[in-house]
Design brief:
Blueprint (H helix, E strand, L loop, with lengths): L1 E6 L24 H14 L2 E4 L8 H11 L5 E4 L5 E3 L2 E3 L3 H12 L3 E8 L12 E3 L8 H11 L6 H5 L8
Parallel strand pairs: 1-2, 1-6, 2-3, 6-7
Antiparallel strand pairs: 4-5
Helix pairs in contact: 1-4
């Protein structure tokens, strides 16, 4: 059984405030402190990564290389599917939560615990208690890592604790 980290890049590893980064063009540089925080989480849980967004980063292979260049030390299992589905006579890309649900249907039988690291604060009910929301202008912090550790170790964490932050602390 594996532990999984569903990882968004923008707002978690790459923020607008870090020199050389820009969330608008999705070609920013990761903040080394955020990468270090992610590595702590990976090392303490043995979790593998599933990437939430890859298309805007040039695809899975390119993003995997970028993560390695940035110093991310975890194994990458893959990415959420970016399939389009028919809806009201139009093809649309399913929401992030729907893609996570689909991934879990396909591969979840081997997953003991998972956490979603994202700066998106719109948390659907099925992800309540499973998502840690970083602040887009700060990225992943020690507080975020502690919450994610509690989730992956299946300790009870309130939804409020995952959305409310005190002062950001770096690793």
């Amino acid at each position: 059984m594996r532990k999984i980290i569903f990882l968004d890049i923008n707002g978690v590893l790459v923020q607008e405030r870090y020199p050389g980064s820009s969330q608008r063009n999705n070609h920013g540089k990761a903040d080394p402190a955020c990468v270090a925080a992610l590595n702590v989480l990976i090392e303490q849980t043995g979790a593998a990564l599933v990437l939430i967004e890859t298309a805007c980063w040039g695809g899975l292979h390119h993003l995997t290389c970028l993560l390695s260049d940035w110093g991310v030390r975890g194994s990458i299992l893959g990415a959420l599917p970016m399939i389009a589905v028919p809806e009201n006579l139009q093809w649309v890309t399913p929401s992030r939560d729907r893609r996570i649900r689909e991934w879990l249907k396909l591969y979840g039988m081997n997953v003991s615990a998972y956490v979603v690291l994202d700066d998106n604060r719109d948390i659907p009910p099925f992800l309540a208690g499973k998502q840690v929301c970083s602040r887009a202008n700060v990225g992943l912090t020690v507080i975020d890592v502690k919450l994610a550790l509690a989730i992956l170790n299946q300790n009870n964490v309130s939804r409020e604790a995952m959305n409310v932050r005190g002062p950001a602390r770096r690793v």
